[in-house]
Amino acid sequence: MSKFLNATLFYALVFVIVGVSVFPFYYAVITSFKTGTALFEVDYFITKLDFSNYINVLSSPNFMRSVWNSVLIAGSTVGFAMFLAVTASYALARVRFKGRGLLLMCILAVSMFPQIAVLAGLFELIRALGIYNTPWAMILSYTIFTLPFTVWVLTTFMRDLPVEIEEAAIIDGATPWVIITQVFLPLMWPALVTTGLLAFIGAWNEFLFALTFTASESQRTVPVAIALLSGASEFEIPWGVLMAASVIVTVPLIALVLIFQRKIVAGLTAGGVKG
Amino acid sequence: MPSSPPTSMSSRHSLSAQRRCAAMWFLAPMLIALFCVAAWPLLRTIYFSSTNTTLTSLYDGKWIGFDNYLSYRKLSSGRVIWRGTLADPAWWNAVWNTVRFSVVSVALETVLGLIVALVLHQNFKGRGWVRAAVLIPWAIPTIVSARMWGWMLNDQFGIINDILLNLGLIETKIAWTANIETAMLAVLAVDVWKTTPFMALLCLAGLQMIPKDVYEAAKVDGIHPIRVFFKVTLPLIRPALMVAVIFRMLDALRIFDLIYVLTPNSKATKTMSVIARENLIDFDKFAYGSAQSTLLFALIAIFVSAYIWLGKVDLSGEHSK
Question: What are the residues facing B83 on neighbouring strands?
């Protein structure tokens, strides 16, 4: 009897956890299919499918432009960070030199920077380079969190690769560059994909820099576009359209996260827990 | 490689020297990039904080020392007037909001994350699906979740008010995000909802590192599961938990986006990042905002050093090898 009770309680807990996790997104989906006065009635299920909000969002040139901006910015900033991080993490993981521990701590410290602390200085730099209100402003500024993160995670991955392969390559007379490109890179593909994906999500979601370094609507990234989306008047928020836009930008992310679940968990724990 | 190998001692020596040289070249581009986007802007921010620079004329600022932080003036009547951030009640309100938010949200996330991790650590049917469902809040961008919750917490048409009214928990509809008393609750709820999955994943990774025979030994000895949790499980995952807590704490201390979107201009939730950006960009008090960002940076730096020093946390993972 008590075993049955325990099992019931356990499944009730599981049910609550799943319900709380999924419900807000589910409710956004419900709302995204509503227009007009239907929005102001609370429904717990989809009553009818009305795609006009989605058509509205997908035919808005500014919103589609924001999606493209976000893809371009997140893609290039991650590509740039990965390019620098692969060689740097080899040096940090595989070569013994003085001050390595200190350097690693500095890199970790940068990834934990409060972004507001560099906002004033970055604003000046971006103005001086003449890239204010262009995608370059974001590509440059996002490096502050994508680069330390990728270096950090790739270093922990590389540290765990067996020493023997590298020793064999050294005996064969391979230079460090050859070791990285011919020996390590093929082994690191899974790690690279995970790290890249996590950094991409971070860049995709960034808000403070994107809000500060853009001025015109066509230069906005997705989070800024969603945050500043407004209707005919400032006080009237078009909730249906807003939820449709939210669903559109969230579904690919949820899909990616669910597909790469296991890898992401491994990547997060490599970046976080090493105790 | 030369065809005639030198003696093994010197070859090993020159080899490691060659590797160290290559390492320097590999590190240089990354270090230069980090200097440009992190160190240099930080130094400029600190410099701006001791000038009277404005947003419109970035290069016309004059050195005014610590006046942005604290200064005083004696009036002819003998009264002393204090000025600067450190004498600004709005700033101290923001500091208090930030600290309150960080401590409460991280504490709740740790406890709930542990519970979720303990559930996911059990063997039951459909565990994979439950874990996938738990990951969803983490996958949703902060801005999107702020908007989604803003709609759910809407005072007139929000579903939260509807549910609570139907359950009889509240008598009238509550303007969760606009009300001074409930704004912080709303922010905390969304943040806890959004980041508990992260905490749960890190805790779960810690749990999975504990060898199974520890539990079996406890079971044989007939120790109550709750006792096992506090005496065995918790001490064993403490290192993992300490690292997870510091990561979350640093994130919470610099929170900006959620509050900017969910409760704009609410005095009850304005944090240090929000108020600093407001001064920097919106109010054209560039130098004043720089001083506030510098203070936030200093606070976080002190917090991290104290935490690492007191908790003996091995963040770099160098010693576990």
Answer: B71
* pLDDT digit string, tens, across residues B266-317: 889 999 999 999 999 888 888 999 999 999 999 988 888 887 787 666 555 5
Nearest-CA neighbor of B291 among B95, B120, B68, B93? Answer: B68
| pLDDT for B209 beyond 80 | yes
Specify whether the CB–CB gap between A100 and A168 falls below 8 A.
no
Measured from the Cβ of residue B163, the count of other Cβ atoms closer than 10 Å reads 14
Query: A119 vs B134: CB contact, 8 Å cut-off?
Result: no
Residues of B in contact with A170 (CB under 8 A): 15
Which residues does A241 contact at the CB level (< 8 Å), separation at least 6? A53, A56, A57, A229, A231
Whether A169 and A236 have beta carbons less than 8 Å apart is answered as: no
Residue A273 has pLDDT above 50, yes or no: no
Contacts of residue B232, Cβ cutoff 8 Å, sequence gap at least 6: B210, B214, B215, B218
User: How many other C-beta atoms can be found within 10 angstroms of the C-beta atom of residue A272?
Assistant: 23
**Could you give the domains of chain B?**
90-283 (1.10.3720.10)
Among candidates A92, A70, A213, which has minimal Cα distance to A150?
A92
Residue at A214: amino acid letter: T
Written as six digits, the tokens of B219 are 């079971």
Q: Is B293 on the interface with A (CB under 8 A)?
A: yes
Could you tell me if B33 lies within 8 Å of chain A, comparing CB atoms? yes
Chain A contacts of B42, Cβ < 8 Å?
113, 117-118, 121
d(CA A112, CA A119): 14
**B166-178 residue pLDDT tens:** 898 888 888 888 8
Chain B residues 211-230 within an 8 A CB cutoff of chain A: none
Q: Which CATH architecture has domain A52-272?
A: Orthogonal Bundle (1.10)
Give A-chain residues touching B125 at CB under 8 angstroms. Answer: none
A67 close to A222: Cβ distance less than 8 angstroms: yes
Nearest residue of chain B to residue A7 (CA atoms): B124
Size of interface A-B (CB pairs under 8 A): 291
